[in-house]
Amino acid sequence: MRKFQLLLLNTLQKEFRSKTLLLVSIFTVVIIFLINSLLSYISTEFLSQMGAEGAAQGSAQALIFIISKFTSLLAIVFGVNCIKSDIENNVAPLMLSFPVSRMEYILSRVLGSWFIVIIYYFVSVIIAQILLSTSVGSLIGGPHLLGAMFFSALSNLVIILVASFMGLYMPKIMAFMMTSFCSILVTASNGYFKGKDWSAMTEEMNIFKGIGLGFHAIFPRIGNIDDIGRNILLKVDDTVLNIPMELGHYFVTLILFFTFFYMLFNRREI
């Protein structure tokens, strides 16, 4: 346990030194301030027609969408780098030469990157909350923020795992593009099949629908998980998604994917 904690701390230190985290954080803060400024300059007449609450809700949705996308971007970048950079710099062979199992190594690298992504999301949403609350009143907070952060964290854990896997077998740019493509494909398939029963999913089947259904069934449904998190954060009721069923599917497919990843990594010469 002590070895794992040291590896995890080493991962956090390595990623916190990353210029990518700094650049994305600065850009996100600038975007948040710009959107908040637009809200502040809305005319009194417009607010009277739409209502401050309606304007604030629209601004909150825009901010959460932007924060979520930048969080996913950061998850891909850290996921691709967390193991691949160690291999490129001959750090991985050195670490594995010590009494450290490959399971401990993978978990420490993946979880370390994951923790930083969670912190980024939490801080970004807090900044957005403070600015919007200053403009129009309290919008996001309390248990809603924690619930949204939980589901966003689940989604980005999958992205980091996929990016780590891609990074082992292809160059960084290609791994980034392939992870982005897979993420978009899974999210799109989740949106298409969202709330449909099995008979509705399989009717009028064709090759493209079959591929989408395969991604929807085999991979963790990050699109649905993201939707649940945003709905909680924005206090929107969604009767389409069954949260216990989505969580059950998520954890089963996540365990299967991680097992597959570990088996391949365990056979790889480092």
Quote the beta fraction. Answer: under 5%
Gyration radius (Cα, Å) is 20 Å
Helix content: over 70%
Shape: globular
**Intertermini distance:** 23 Å
Low-confidence stretches: 43-48
Described by strand count, sense and barrel closure, the largest sheet is: none
Number of strands: 0
Secondary-structure element pattern, one letter each: HHHHHHHHHHHH
- Helix/strand structural class: mainly alpha
Count of alpha and pi helical runs: 12
- Count of the separate structural domains: 1
Average pLDDT figure: 80
In short:
The protein has 270 residues and is mostly helical.
Task: Give an overview in words.
The protein is mainly alpha-helical and 270 residues long. It has one domain (2-267). It is 84% helix and 0% strand. Helix 4 runs antiparallel to helix 6 and helix 4 packs parallel to helix 7 (142-169). The longest helix is centred in the N-terminal third of the chain and has 37 residues, at 52-88.
SSE topology sketch:
Layout: H1 2-16, H2 19-40, H3 44-50, H4 52-88, H5 91-97, H6 102-136, H7 142-169, H8 172-193, H9 198-202, H10 207-218, H11 222-233, H12 243-267
Features of the shown structure:
270 residues, mainly alpha, single chain, 12 helices
